[in-house]
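Q: GNAT superfamily N-acetyltransferase, please. Structure only.
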Amino acid sequence: MGDPRYRRATAADLGAIVAMLADDVLGASRENASPAVDDCYRAAFAEIDADPNQFLCVVEEEQQIVGTLQLTFIAGLSRNGTKRGQIEAVRIASDRRGGKLGEAMFAWAISECRAHGCSLVQLTTDKARPDAHRFYERLGFEPTHIGYKLQI
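A: Structure for GNAT superfamily N-acetyltransferase:
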């Protein structure tokens, strides 16, 4: 495969992004790629795209979208005004998993966080993803917090 190319996602990329989000055990139960919910994804994309503190990234190799992640740059008062980079919705096309693309994506994302003035990079991951936990720890991330969610 060629070198990965990282770029801001466009509305035309939504189908590929949603397909990757849905292409695993957890995502299959959370995502819905049917045309009936297409407007929901388009509205969410428009909001993300309009926010200068958001970067929805797609990764291309040989003009194929093979990965995606969302970066959020968060200003904060804690930790002496530390700006944080939040990495979420990380997915790699199923036929590209295990080939070091994830490491390259994280190296790029961390570099982007630095370029945006972040001194901390954080992420969340589902408890049901032990392989992802090992991957993040191998990259130097530490499981320092417990996260909670409330569906409303």
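A: Brief note, in case it's useful. The chain has one domain: 5-138.
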